[in-house]
Amino acid sequence: MGRIFNRSIIGSIALLLVLYLVLFNRFGPEHFHGLVWRWRRPGQMSVVEALAMDMEAAKPPEGVLPVVTEVVKPSPFEVAVTYTGTVAPLNEEIVVARVTGRLTWMPYYAGDRIRRGQLVAKLDNAGGEYAAREREAAYSAMAALHERHMAEAEKGEAEAKRRQAESAVQAAQAMREEAERMVAEKRAMLTEAISMAAQAQAGVTEAEQALSLAQAQLRETERMVAALESERQVATEQIGEAEADLERALQEVEIAQQELAAAQAEFAYWEAEIERAKTLYEQKVISKDEFQREQAQYEAAKARTRSAEAKLRQAQAMVRAAEAKVRQARATVKQKEAELAAAKERVTQGQAMVATAQAKVSQMRAMAQAAQAKVQQAQAALEAAQARMRQVAAEVQQAQAMVQEAQASIQRAHRHVLHADALRMQAKAALTIARILRGYTQIYALTDGYVVERLIAPGTLVTGGTPILRIAQLDKVRIQTFVSEKDLIDLRLGAPVVIRSVKDGKQWQARITAIFPSADPTTRTGLVEAIVDNTDLQLLPGQSVMVRIVKQRLPAALTVPNSALTQFNGQPAIWIAMPISDSGPTEYTCPMHPEVRSDKPDHCPKCGMDLVPTKRHAVQPKTKYTCPMHPEVQSDKAGRCPKCGMDLVPTRRQGNETKVARLKTVQLGATDGQRTLVLDGLREGDEVIVRGWQTLKDGTPVVAVSEAERNALTPLSVPPPPSQKGEHHHDHP
Q1: At 493, is the secondary structure helix, strand, or coil?
Q2: Closest CA relative to residue 95, chosen from 461, 448, 456, 443
Q3: 80 close to 675: Cβ distance less than 8 angstroms
Q4: Phi first, then psi: what are they for 585, rounded to 5°?
């Protein structure tokens, strides 16, 4: 084991030495140091190699890039959206069997034309069952008709009995009317007598009331006379009291005048005294306390004067009140004396009225007794007339009972007739149903259209409601598409719609006919529908089509192809081909550090390299001339064609003018899928690069060519400047 283990170790060491020598010879010492091998990508340099590199050799490749351009100009533009739609028939009919039977005839297949009312299928009649039902219903109708004739005969007999009873009733009613007339006359006489008695009794009552009223008025007048005499005595006494009050008030006035005179004299004294005290106090002859005592005496005298004046005014007011009271008491005495004289006159008149009322009461009582006797006589005559009327009423009731019995017979006969009519109508309905069921064995189309599906084959046993054919109206079809919510809000009924077939690209013009007022909460879309004429049957149900819906039409708008759109710093941008003379002053930059910029030649502050210009002013080539009829004829100057003699004209591009590519950010609007509306950032006349911008950098020289020429041209000898700082990415069309 020791020998084997030693041999294995020695063999492994030898193998490693051989592998090391092979790798060392293959890659050299610069890539293989010791036992570590460092792998590099093709072209990768080490740090030492990078420091030793000649920076002048790191220049970008020179050349002018061919691009396809388009000059911006206003043009009509339609803001439209495109969706995938589905073709649906305008109307669709499922032909079904109405009864049970075996399908015996149906020669139509998918694609066959069907007219409205056309026979499309036949069923057997279930072994004659439907015909037997029809005969049974016909016999039942005949039996019901016979039953109705019998009921009408019974009704005629009952109506004859009723007419006979009605004649008897009319005779009895005439007699009753005569009796009622007599009762009415007697009742009128009684009523008149009662009215006369009531009037007489009312006259008695009225006379008694007038007597009572006259007596009451007389008593009231006598009471008023006594009261007025008492009131006159009181008023006389009030005159004496008022005169005594007036005397006392006059005395009070005299006393108040004396007190006022004394108070005024005292106030005049103290008024002069206070003036003297003020003078002495100002001269400091008396003290302040003495002055204040003098002033207090002055104020007290002034207050007593005011009190005396108020007392005098009060006493004078009492005099005026007492005088008014005396005048009022005298007026009251005079008024009571006048009222007393008038009351005594009314007493005399009341006594005369009482005597007259007593005489009228006696007269009215006699008239009431005579009227009561007449009432008793009229009551006896009324009772006799009422007895005759009750006898006639019994005869009328007997005749009416006969009429009611006859009427009941008529009603029974009428119900019999109605029952017979119901049986007859029931039998006719059963006959109609039987005929309808037998008619259901032949199935007709209800609409014009085409057979789109044959659901069962002849020989199949079907039941009511079994589908047989599916017929669709295809001369007009409905184009249905689901539109997103953001586009749905801008659509209106009647908006133009272009339908394009996915198969052959054929187009149809239509307008929106329906916008369903609901949206799918899952897909956030709503259904929009347009009806299209399809007389040539180019559109088939279930077919997929492209639906272009015009949301808005702009008469003059600035648009660019979608292939020209890119982005810069997250904003939409467009490459513009600008003339070199219009691209601004020359800038200088470092080939290795593009962020270094200068407006004059200098050295890079980072690496020391010479700055290079970012723009080159190309020499404008001469104008080329050619013949319109012979394009192969070319010349550097104007002249005539040597083949046809026509004047030479300048070519479309005069010398392939070299321009500079500039990236501009823009504000975009709506798109129709091919072109996009530019709201801001472009002007009319700008030359937009629509093809070939994917490899451009800001400031790259470009030349406008056609699509075919761009693929054939090679770069020219004008070197492009380095790109400006900033990144952009392209959205490929």
Answers
A1: coil
A2: 443
A3: no
A4: -65, 155
Q: What is the C-alpha end-to-end distance of the chain, expressed in Å? A: 75
Handedness of CA 692, 693, 695, 699 (dihedral sign): positive
Question: Beta strand pairing status for 507-520 and 675-680?
Answer: unpaired
Tokens 């106030």 locate to 267
Token pair 């100002």 is at which residue? 282
Which amino acid is present at 567?
A: Q
More confident residue, 176 or 686: 686
DSSP state at residue 56: G
- DSSP collapsed to 3 states, 184-197: HHHHHHHHHHHHHH
Residues 6+ apart with CB under 8 A from 659: 577, 578, 579, 580, 687, 701, 702, 703, 704
Tokens of 25: 């010879």
CATH topology of domain 75-124+446-557: Elongation Factor Tu (Ef-tu); domain 3 (2.40.30)
Look up residue 301 and give its amino acid.
A
Distances (CA, A) of 495 to 225, 481, 512: 111, 14, 5
Structure tokens at 611: 């700055």
Quick check: 465 and 489 in contact, CB under 8 A? no
* Cβ 458 vs Cβ 469: under 8 Å: no
472's tokens = 């669709």
H or E element at residue 354:
helix 288-439
Kindly report, residue by residue over 154-165, the tens digit of the pLDDT. Answer: 778 778 877 887
What pLDDT, on the 0 to 100 scale, is given for residue 482?
93
Full-model pTM: 0.41
Half-sphere exposure of 56 (CA within 13 A, CB side): 1
Q: What is the pLDDT of residue 128?
A: 63
CA distances from 714 to 308, 577, 718 (A): 140, 19, 12
Q: Which residue type, as a one-letter code, is found at position 542? A: G
627/642 Cα distance (integer angstroms): 9
Q: What is the pLDDT of residues 450-466, one digit of tens each?
A: 898 898 988 888 888 89
Quick check: 427 and 137 in contact, CB under 8 A? yes
283-301 average pLDDT score? 85
Asked if residues 399 and 172 have their Cβ atoms less than 8 Å apart, the reply is yes
**Which stretches of 500-550 are DSSP H helices?**
none
Token pair listed for 139: 């016999």
Evaluate if residue 653 carries a pLDDT over 60.
Answer: no
Domain ranges of the chain: 2-53, 75-124+446-557, 131-436, 560-621+656-730
Are the C-beta atoms of 444 and 117 separated by less than 8 Å? yes
